[in-house]
Amino acid sequence: MQPVSRRSALILGGVGAAATVTGAAGLLSGWGLGFPAAGGQDLSEPQALQSADGRLQVKLSAAPGQVRIAGRDANALSYNGSLPGPTLFLRPGDRVNVSLENRLADPTNLHVHGLHVSPEGNSDNALVSVEPGMSFDYEYRLPLNHPPGVYWYHPHRHGSAADQIFGGLYGAIIVQDSQPVPVSRERVLVISDISLTGGGSIAAVSAMEKMVGREGALVLVNGQLNPVLAARPGERERWRIINACTSRYLKLRLDGQELQLLGMDSGRYQSPRNVDEVLLAPGNRADLLVTAADGTAVLRTLPVDRGSMAGSMMGGNNGGGRFPAGPDGTALATFAVAGAPAAALAPVPSQPVPRDLRSLAVTAHRELVFAMGMGMNNGGADMGGGMGGGMGGGTGSGMMSFTINGRAFDPARVDTTVSAGAVEEWTLRNTSPMDHPVHLHVWPMQIVEQAGRPVDSPVWQDVVNVPARSSVRVRIAFDDFTGKTVYHCHILDHEDSGMMGLIEAR
Fold first, then answer.
1. Residue 119 region, left (φ>0) first, then alpha (ψ -120 to 50), else beta?
2. Phi/psi at 368 (nearest 5 deg)?
3. What is the model's pTM?
4. 96 C-beta neighbours (distance < 10 Å), count
5. Which of 38, 161, 196, 312 has the least C-beta neighbours within 10 A?
6. 298 SS3 class
7. Sign of CA dihedral 216, 219, 221, 222
8. Phi and psi dihedrals of 405, rounded to 5?
9. How far, CA to CA in Å, does 255 sit from each of 16, 223, 263, 276, 435?
């Protein structure tokens, strides 16, 4: 490790202080920002837009304006004036046309997170830029064998993704099952966070908070604060949960209720797994069955230690991004179960056996090193033994760099070239003192090894958390599509600051 300059040490000291204070209370001021939030209302869900006869036509207008947040009117960003935006219900084989209108002051675009669709042209093209006052017509064609699951959409314009998502731009996508799962009720729960001033505007975010990865003062479910979900004993509900937070990890618990996990991201288990809690890194999704038991339960997110930027140089872990919310965590929603017991439902049908790439020949092995460093221009000291690299865009000269294999993102440079149809094995190595959730567009990843231990059964995700100073091995089948897309850290401030690479399938 290179010596640390006095300037870098001062910056790190400030980051350590920010890392200790920020978390469940959000920004340094937290609830002192004064927004008069109101909770405890019945859960509302976004507008549902269903495909029909294999088609869905949608207009999304991204704009600032008045929107309902936490029971009050606020000035934020939204799609079509609601937070979250409308939920898109699709089926495998659908053709989806989205006309994106940019009424923001800055460029934007649209990413359909997790969908296995082309990255080229006007499909899921992360390199598209829609200028203010302009519109862009996207078209997505889902393969006939597209996996069912929980997906979402959000902006992906490099340098402003964190600001735009934090401001309110996101919505759910559900790809329906070919064989329905018998449930009493289905719910879409989009969990996000935001910080608002007393006047109801989006609060400013400091450079230190961006380096840690911002966490908002308000943690919302469908734009509401601690909404109420009502059910009867014995009802089986299906909760499709999205972590749309820019940096916050969610360790979800609903004590006193029976929880079964159908799958994560686009992955689906052959049969539901009984769970006590579910950990969602930013960008992860869960498909959860909840069998209601009489009484009132609280859906909580428990404290998650995702590391500290100051840990490697200051000695110890200051809990960067950790919720200072006490052992009971933060209440997200109240599940009120009362009334006459419901009739029993049919068993959940078995799902297809998940694909397993471990039986296939690997055509290439790669290592991606996710590193954070201090320094001026390209001469920084790495914080974890990896490559320090250049400065990340958006943090400013002399501040923190966020790199993959020693380089910050450059849209003009292809970092990785793969052969179409190949099966590759990647080692995702994190040399930094903070967790990094790694997201690859278009192609999901099968996790084959975590912390040096093999993963016995097929686990598929498109966001894979790589803990601090650790590594994860994944396999990827580059099926169906060619073109350029990206992989990146889904702590979106880190992505905007350079922790992203460009990949081309040929």
1. alpha
2. -110, 120
3. 0.90
4. 23
5. 38
6. strand
7. negative
8. 50, 40
9. 33, 23, 20, 8, 27
